[in-house]
Batch of 2 targets.
Target 1
Amino acid sequence: MHDTSPMTSSAVLKLSWPQTHGYWEIPVLFEDEHLLAVEKPAGLLTSPDRYDPDRPNLMRLLHAGISVGKTWAKTRGLAYLANAHRLDFDTSGILLLAKSKSVLVKLVNLFGTDKPRKRYVGLAQGTAKHEHFEVDAPLAPDPYKPGLMRIDMKNGKKSLTRFKVIENFAGYALLECEPVTGRTHQIRVHLQRAGMPLVADESYGGLPLFLSRLKPNYRFKRGAEEHPLIKRVALHAFRLEMPHPITGEPLVIDSPWPKDLRVAVKYLRKFAPARQFGEA
């Protein structure tokens, strides 16, 4: 997987949150009579926050659009949408939704098995020593940091993530991440365990990526603050493969790499060239 070119979508769902003047255009990645797959943007919750239920979240925005009869809902005849899985607030990519309760039940049952294959692309700090590696370490909520997870060898739930290096850079690595299990923050904690936290993942040891750290003789603009190349956790759900919950036929959904990730990779290729395995 090396294609980082943008892909246009045939449809978008226009959502708004008047309380904060928020506005989102959510691309539709796949749709049939039973399912709707959308591309969740970074910086938007999937569902309500248990600590702050008033924060905007994608499912609430979708339900509001259906209830007031937004054009995208009326043209589809939508009366119901529900999610069987989630993406973190800062993670972008594929979110698969059911259009009826009966489909949701089948979807939940599928996501409770190992049949769905979820793949993410992540930009991590550090250089991988092997092209393929995995982290098998049980996870549990961190009792000292609400909302975060930690490795707990005694009481944690089994958690396994497989990683493949797409490209190595000087001090960074572009990874394909496949969580075999589906624990909260699993990829993020497992990369922290591997000594390769995701870029900008401050909760688990990741640091922002600034162009000034890559480009020789970088000139700072007087009085201007430098912004990081990626302002959020560098993780994107780019592919979902699974049997269709109704037909059983193979279903493959893809989501293009977001602009911030493509820009970061472009500068890494230019100023921190890829290294082969075994190079010093």
Note: The longest strand covers residues 22-31.
Target 2
Amino acid sequence: MARVIIEVVGLTAGFGDDIILRDLNFKVYEGEIFVIVGGSGCGKSTLLKHLIGLHEVKSGRILLFGKDITTAREEELMRLKQEMGVLFQTSALFGSMTLYENIALPLQEFTTLSQDTIDMLVKIKLAMVGLEGYENHFPNELSGGMKKRAGIARAMALDPSILFLDEPSAGLDPVTSAELDGLIKKINRGTGTTMVIVTHELESIFSISDRIIMLDKSKKGIIAEGRPKELKMYSPDPKVLNFFNRGAISEASRKGYKG
């Protein structure tokens, strides 16, 4: 059995009096691609932001490597955060910096590496995502897919144990999205990095995920957990079946099928 990297125990999350998620319990294992899915407004990105320590929990615990980030002291929390890499929906690259400067920044901030070593690592990270030779380009000179790749390179700068990706395929065409899915799998298999990904894209869910949880807005919690292909076929919950079979249902409707 693989080691537990993340354990969420009784997590309730929200803002003010608004409860978005209630009493969540799940585990993420070392080396897996764990995907958080669900309809719009179900709390996927909210959960991700709690997992990386951007929001305080209402109640419950979030354990990273057995350490509870909800009660950790600032110094311990900073150390744990250096084990995380994050790709936000917009890639969040600094527009006034070149790709080299974007990727070098965390290395300069959190390590004592020499400049030559940082230069080498930046080139390695860009090569890892297929952007070798783009060190001196600015984000506005890149396509949407290239920005996502550059964001992943920066997120991987410190060789994190966990990579969090929020809607990595958002806004990309199907071909570019499939290429990004391939890159995610390649990095995961090549480095063993544990990945937690938020997405609603069916193609990506089936392509990359080892295991998923599905959130539901009305329940404010998890309504399914497991392998997506098995949930698509055998889930007893109509909401889960509709979610994972919506492509087939849409195609049937388009062709006028009945029954």
Note: Confidence is low (pLDDT under 50) at residues 249-259.
